[in-house]
Amino acid sequence: MTKKAVVLYSGGLDSTTCLAIARAEGFAPYALSFAYGQRHAVELAKARENAPRMGAIEHLVVDIDLRQIGGSALTAELAVPKGRKIDDSIPVTYVPARNTVFLSFALGWAEVLGAFDIFIGVNALDYSGYPDCRPEYIAAFENLANLATRAAVEKKGTYRLHTPLISLSKGEIIRTGLNLGVDYSHTLSCYDPTAEGLACGACDSCLLRLKGFREAGLQDPINYLPVAEKELEEK
Amino acid sequence: MTKKAVVLYSGGLDSTTCLAIARAEGFAPYALSFAYGQRHAVELAKARENAPRMGAIEHLVVDIDLRQIGGSALTAELAVPKGRKIDDSIPVTYVPARNTVFLSFALGWAEVLGAFDIFIGVNALDYSGYPDCRPEYIAAFENLANLATRAAVEKKGTYRLHTPLISLSKGEIIRTGLNLGVDYSHTLSCYDPTAEGLACGACDSCLLRLKGFREAGLQDPINYLPVAEKELEEK
Fold first, then answer.
1. Among all residues of chain A, which has the CA nearest to that of B34?
2. Per-residue pLDDT for A30 more than 90?
3. What is the b/e burial string over B46-66, where b = at least 16 CB atoms within 10 angstroms of the residue's CB?
4. For residue B63, what is the enclosing H or E element?
5. Which of B69, B148, B154 is the closest to A137 by Cβ?
6. Distance to chain A for B67, nearest Cα, Å
7. Cα–Cα distance, B124 to B190 (Å, whole number)
């Protein structure tokens, strides 16, 4: 029987590649998304559309309103910074404890499904400065998972967190995905897209994505706001 | 300035005592509850009523529907067992990854509030068999918290999980609470109360609570279903 895996899946470039890798490694992927009050809800619509195309056995979208807690430009009434120099500092798009919340739900769902493998597309290289994307954080959650659950305590298996993108550059992620047949025209990464799903081309997430395509020597197949396209040409 | 603490607060006996302890230790308590699709939503109504009375500075109720994930008698369409012999086995009322989900939100809210202290009323003695109530689990979460967050990475403080009830018997918990002025008539612990808020007297939670009051040589001030009262008298 194919082993099940829960894959954290936002519909963006990284998590879509991660889903393709889980499948290529022989897992039956169960995609998990969150409606967490993010500005970029259009990303979620893309995720829903693309999950079956990517071979997800099931796609669960859990409602959790992180706006109730506040504290981030992705959920609160703060402006998403544009054209920021991406360095080691933690940006205002940081959502407090986001990956911890996401992984907690992934763990709960994995336990219900009888899965012991969880994929998360974090990246420690082009990582935009989030503390909960680092290897030491992932190791700590894996340790927690094996203490937190009935399935682990009853020795039915050992939870493993898979982070296949953790040491790849954006360019390498894109090349990996293309080799696995990912069609990136169905993914959206922008933190602040238009209602029609046009990417802004200037937030951290767009800048990293565009840098990735440049590194891979390719053109990003998605549409950007015309003004962003123009600026990109000038660079 | 008084230090803030986030207190996980269900409105039941344990978490209400925990809130009283946080206050007695000099913290400004921020109470956090969850509407997680539990059968015992009447507990939440009691929690809302009682939080200001207990001195909570704020009471946040976060909506998270754990029913979407399933797998527990507390959230799914399974029957809550009655009159069960309470032993070391993990009961069907176990909610997958529940405390991990709850603590993740507590951590996120703590970070937004600038708090570094989180209180959780877990109990390893009369604990009803949940793996995520054990000291080694709590230690693993504390370790995770200090890797997961911007506040910790930027060395603004160190997260500490407080588990003041962890080694107390139910009788000791009740005596501690009474010494701190807790009025237990405003708390409800039952997993399966009536719509009017009458406790069943037969689920694990009721059995542990009633045992606690017996140990403390006291009468539980809340109302039980008449049939339960009768059985109790016969015991």
1. A64
2. yes
3. bbeebbeebebbebbebebeb
4. strand B58-63
5. B148
6. 10
7. 19
- Asked whether the ipTM of the predicted complex exceeds the cut of 0.90, the reply is no
- Determine the residue type at B45: A
- CB contact, 8 Å: A76 with chain B? no
Q: Does B113 touch chain A (CB under 8 A)?
A: no
Residues 6+ apart with CB under 8 A from A210: A201, A220, A232
- Domain annotation covers residue A203: no
Most confident of A116-120, A227-231, B200-204: A116-120
Give chain B's domain count.
Answer: 1
Quick check: B32 contacting A, CB < 8 Å?
Answer: no
Q: Does pLDDT of A3 surpass 70?
A: yes
Residue found by looking up tokens 């754990």 in the block: B66
Which two tokens mark A202? 């200037």
Question: Could you tell me the residue range of the domain that residue A45 belongs to?
Answer: 4-189
B105 CB neighbours in chain A (<8 A) are 69, 97, 101
Residue B124 pLDDT = 80
Nearest CA in chain B to A130: B150
Q: What is the mean pLDDT, run by run of 10 residues, along chain B of 235 residues? A: 93 96 98 80 87 96 80 63 67 78 95 95 75 92 94 90 95 97 93 87 90 94 78 55
How many Cα atoms sit within 13 Å of B204 on the Cβ side?
20
Q: What is the DSSP letter of A46?
A: H
**Is residue A214 one of the residues assigned to a domain?**
no
Q: How big is the A-B interface in CB pairs under 8 Å?
A: 145
Please give the model's pTM, rounded to 2 decimal places. 0.89
Q: What distance in Å separates residue B156's CA from the closest CA in chain A?
A: 14
Query: CATH number of the domain that B34 lies in?
Result: 3.40.50.620
Does residue A198 sit within a domain?
no
> What do you get for the CA distance between the two ends of chain B, in Å?
51
Beta bridge mates, A60: A32
Asked, for residue A112, whether it belongs to a domain, the answer is: yes
Distance CA B111, CA A226 (A): 38
